[in-house]
Design a protein that fits this description.
The protein has 279 residues and is an alpha/beta fold. It is built from nine helices and eleven strands. The chain has a domain of 158 residues: Vaccinia Virus protein VP39 (Rossmann fold, 3-Layer(aba) Sandwich), CATH 3.40.50. A hairpin with a 2-residue loop joins strand 1 and strand 2. Bound molecules: S-adenosylmethionine.
């Protein structure tokens, strides 16, 4: 297993859903992501916080369904016995067929290849199933939740995050946005108990995040890609930076004094398989 992705990939190259960057690039990017200098700061901050809040619920063997590059692996690893990342090859290969060539290296990030809707995992064998921002990408999210519930041990937990307000992404496989009621319905119908469904951000942060992204997409982009993302123009992004930073800070401050959650950026779900249910 290769531990240094740069030993096999050009720096910054994006292959499928996996990004490879050098150590310096990774560090700089990680720092920038944490500040309003990043036009996606409000988005990233609230998603990250909502995933962090899931960490205390994790234990035992954790299966991350739709792991991609495993952005939260280091958050959970200290809390679980084993962290198993699962990816769906067709959804990667649809995007970039050259991914096949890198499959051995990608295995450093992905331990199991399989379809979340038909998990290659024994019923009742996993303590924690994590799936962040994946449900919107499958044609039948209800079936995915049922499948994730199937592999949970009695007492095991399902940890999900989903978007509510979010631009289209990873096209063409972006099918849904979710409300708390739909999430509750999926979870209960899968035989699980809801522990919590928590919004991330609120009306103010969702507005700030969308305005900042709109500025970048409309005035700072060099090119739109077929998957819905944009390639930013470095110069125009730099010129827009004071505006996107000020907007995000302004809406962040507004979010501290208003608390309307009728609109938010997404939801985090914690659900448990009852102890008594037979597998
Ligand atoms: C928006 S990305 C989220 C990736 C990662 N979980 C994160 O939070 O950054 C959605 C992921 O779901 C994966 N995916 C899509 N369909 C899937 C399926 N049927 N089974 C498992 N993963 C799937 C995609 O390959 C992609 O990596």
């Amino acid at each position: 297993m290769t531990s240094d992705p740069d030993s096999f990939s050009p720096r910054g190259k994006r292959v499928g859903v996996v990004h490879y960057r050098g150590h310096v690039g990774q560090r700089l990017n990680a720092w920038r992501k944490r500040t309003p200098l990043n036009p996606y700061w409000l988005d990233w901050r609230h998603l990250r916080r909502s995933v962090e809040a899931l960490v205390p619920h994790a234990s035992g063997t954790l299966l991350d369904v739709g792991v991609s590059e495993g952005p939260y692996r280091e958050l959970f690893e200290a809390h679980v016995d084993q962290y198993v990342g699962l990816e769906y090859p067709p959804s990667i290969l649809d995007k970039q067929p050259e991914m096949w060539e890198m499959l051995p290296q990608v295995k450093a990030l992905v331990q199991v290849f399989g379809d979340g809707a038909h998990l290659p995992v024994r019923s009742g064998s996993v303590r924690t199933v994590l799936s962040t921002e994946v449900l919107e990408h499958v044609p039948d999210p209800r079936a995915l939740v049922q499948e994730m519930a199937r592999v949970l041990e009695p007492g095991g937990k399902l940890l999900l995050t989903v978007p509510f307000i979010q631009p289209l992404h990873e096209l063409p496989s972006d099918y849904f946005r979710f409300t708390p009621s739909s999430l509750e319905r999926f979870v209960v119908d899968a035989g699980l108990e809801v522990i919590s469904i928590t919004p991330r951000g609120n009306f103010a942060t969702a507005n700030g995040a969308m305005l900042s992204q709109w500025l970048i997409r409309s005035f700072g982009a060099r090119r739109r890609q077929s998957d819905g993302s944009v390639i930013p123009s470095p110069l125009r992004s730099l010129l827009l930076m004071p505006l996107t930073a000020a907007l995000q800070v302004g809406f962040h401050l507004a979010s501290l004094v208003t608390n309307d959650e009728a609109v938010c950026q997404g939801y985090a779900v914690v659900a448990r398989r009852p102890e008594s249910r037979a597998s």
